[in-house]
Design brief:
Layout lengths: L1 H24 L6 H13 L5 H26 L7 H6 L2 H14 L2 H6 L6 H11 L4 H25 L4 H63 L1
Length: 226
């Protein structure tokens, strides 16, 4: 895949990189990470400028993601009747993504950038939910893209002359990223559980105080009647 994308990008430059990244945003099965690395590779081979490539890469992923978000926002659940979308997000996957939004909120948008295969369904569902504004989506996804896009582009630029080393580093980055995400999910789940327990304890304490006050009023009323 890397060699194929590299040859294509060498012929058509920035426009080809931008176009492929937009297609990635539509859920086309082309690895976005490898696409960005390939853009960096042709910069390392002096066909393009790496800094411009990083900007083009950022623009491509944001446009692709943004179109999916806006389609969901404008058409709502009606878009699920469209066959390509129905194949991308069958009812079971849609229910799973909705569940993640209900549980984790807007933070899912940030994590989605690092989850191949789930980006498009998550951004589409975010728009369909009606609970997330365009600016909220832009902030979360844009911040994540500012982290991920330069990493892949500059990695490709640095390893352009040694493809074997480059692919080893790509796999290491991917595995390391998954580990970080898993650890982050565990830490968040622990934080969420502790906070939930604290809220429950506070609620129980409040209910107990109300019960004690009610009992005190009842006892006082009984004394008054006697």
């Amino acid at each position: 895949m890397l060699a194929l994308l590299e040859n294509f990008f060498i012929q058509f430059g920035y426009v080809a990189v931008f176009f492929v990244l937009v297609l990635c945003g539509f859920g086309v099965p082309i690895p976005e990470d490898i696409t960005l690395v390939a853009g960096g590779v042709i910069s390392g081979l002096h066909y393009t400028n790496v800094h411009i490539m990083a900007i083009v890469g950022f623009g491509g992923v944001m446009v692709g993601d943004g179109i999916m978000f806006l389609l969901g926002k404008f058409y709502g659940e009606r878009i699920l009747r469209f066959k390509p979308v129905a194949r991308l997000m069958p009812p079971k996957r849609y229910a799973q993504v909705r569940q993640k939004f209900d549980r984790y909120g807007n933070r899912v948008l940030f994590v989605a950038r690092f989850l191949p295969g789930l980006r498009s369904p998550i951004f589409l569902t975010a728009g369909m939910s009606g609970k997330i504004s365009f600016w909220q989506w832009l902030m979360m996804d844009g911040f994540a893209a500012l982290i991920s896009v330069p990493v892949w582009v500059y990695l490709g630029n640095y390893g352009a002359e040694n493809k074997d080393w480059l692919m080893q580093q790509v796999h290491r980055f991917q595995h390391g990223l998954y580990i970080v995400l898993i650890l982050g999910a565990v830490a968040f789940a622990r934080y969420w559980w502790k906070r939930r327990q604290a809220l429950l304890a506070r609620k129980m304490a409040l209910l107990e105080k109300r019960r004690q006050r009610r009992l005190a009023r009842q006892a006082k009323a009984s004394e008054t009647q006697q």
